[in-house]
Design goal:
Layout (H helix, E strand, L loop, with lengths): L1 H14 L1 E2 L17 E3 L2 H6 L4 E4 L5 H16 L12 E9 L4 H14 L10 E15 L9 E7 L3 E7 L6 E6 L4 E5 H5 L1 E5 L6 E2 L2 E2 L5 E7 L4
Parallel strand pairs: 1-2
Antiparallel strand pairs: 2-8, 3-9, 4-5, 5-10, 5-13, 6-9, 6-13, 7-8, 7-10, 11-12
Bound molecules: N-oxalylglycine and manganese (II) ion.
Cofactor: Fe(2+)
InterPro entries: AlkB-like_sf, ALKBH7-like
Protein name: AlkB homolog 7
Length: 225
């Protein structure tokens, strides 16, 4: 029992990384417990359970199947760059309610890990295609339309997400979102923190540059209660 507690403590400690700490990796190979850092280790601890990144959530084949279904529709649209009041710069988007077998399997898995059973979901899945020069400015999703949980798959590119506490801007978290990972944001992390995807020239995590290529996110949300 003691041993278990010691091991648990160690894991706990290691995962509470402050973003200002020295990078422990060369190259962009982070373990799952190193994908979230923050203004302080204490903040990372406090938001544990509300912020999650799972690497390799989908396989290369599944990413290919998603792209095959999404690309024809996306390609018909143009990236939008100059909507001054938009939260997103350099994007095109779509919604999708029906999927082929492989993609439906991915969606089932996503729903099973991110949402509690019976939690009513926003019908169609949101697909956001960010150009290489695209980025998402700080914003909080409308509380009128979306509930407490947001879960997103990242396709085609690694990226860095930043969460900044709305009423305390010194408090922030950064998430390294590897290609083919899933992130889940819940509760405070979703309601109290603005969320952004950093533009290419600001895209750094733990002192390392994370080049931002074209990135597609597939996002599921639940409904407000
Ligand atoms: C959004 C959003 C996050 C993402 O589309 O409003 O916050 O992962 N997206 O693309
Ligand atoms: Mn949003």
């Amino acid at each position: 029992m003691r041993l278990l507690i010691t091991v648990a403590r160690r894991i706990h400690k290691r995962s509470a990384a402050s973003c200002s700490g020295a990078a422990t990796n060369s190259g962009l190979q982070f373990r799952d417990d190193q994908l979230v850092c923050g203004s302080t280790g204490e903040l990372v601890q406090r938001l544990r359970g509300q912020v999650e990144v799972r690497t390799e959530f989908i396989s290369e084949e599944e990413e290919g199947a998603l792209m095959k279904e999404l690309e024809p529709g996306l390609r018909k649209k143009r990236y939008e760059f100059d909507h001054w009041d938009d939260a997103i710069h350099g994007y095109r988007e779509a919604e999708r309610a029906q999927w082929g077998e492989v993609c439906e399997g991915v969606m089932d898995r996503l729903r099973a890990v991110a949402f509690s059973e019976g939690s009513p979901l926003l019908g169609p899945v949101h697909v956001l295609d960010l150009d290489k020069a695209g980025y998402i400015k700080p914003h909080i999703d409308s509380v009128k339309f979306c509930g407490s949980t947001i879960a997103g798959l990242s396709l085609l590119s690694d990226s860095v997400m930043r969460l900044v506490r709305e009423d305390e801007p010194a408090e922030y978290l950064k998430l390294f979102l590897p290609r083919r990972s899933l992130y889940i944001l819940r509760d405070q992390a979703r309601y109290k923190f603005t969320r952004e995807i950093l533009k290419d020239d600001e895209s750094f995590f733990s002192g390392q540059r994370v080049p931002h290529h074209r990135r597609i996110s597939v996002i599921c949300r639940n409904l407000p209660v």
